[in-house]
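Render this sequence as a predicted structure.
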Amino acid sequence: MKRIIGALVFTFVFSNALYAREAHPYSEDPVVEARLLVLADELRCLVCQNESLASSRSELADDLRREVRDLIRQGKTDNQIKTFLVERYGDFVLYRPEVKPITWILWFGPFLLLLIAMWSLWRYLRMRRDALLQHQQAKAQSIENPITPQD
């Protein structure tokens, strides 16, 4: 039994080594690396859910960072790099996509839902108030004019 427990403990302790990867060196130029970090914060990892390219550790994110680094070295501007990535991967790659007809629901949808929720709450409260007033009026009328049984 001690051997089994020992084997399990050994497995749990050293299983993290299976997920280790080789560290990729940064660029030799600190200016390129600084621009990459700024751009990578504005770009979304295509594999990870809601994670920026800067914070993602997936292999695709490593490839995209390497590609962005190459584009920076080629002298491309930030807008040219973003345009290139959008043409290649779509608007999903941007954390803050441009406001255009296809993204209106993304930009204005939450506000529209909030307005609908507020309107629904207002209607519900108004209908509840009206029902309460009607109930109170009916109760007051029944007290003033009690129904008497007729023989």
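Summary. Residues 103-141 form one domain. The chain has two domains: 21-98, 103-141.
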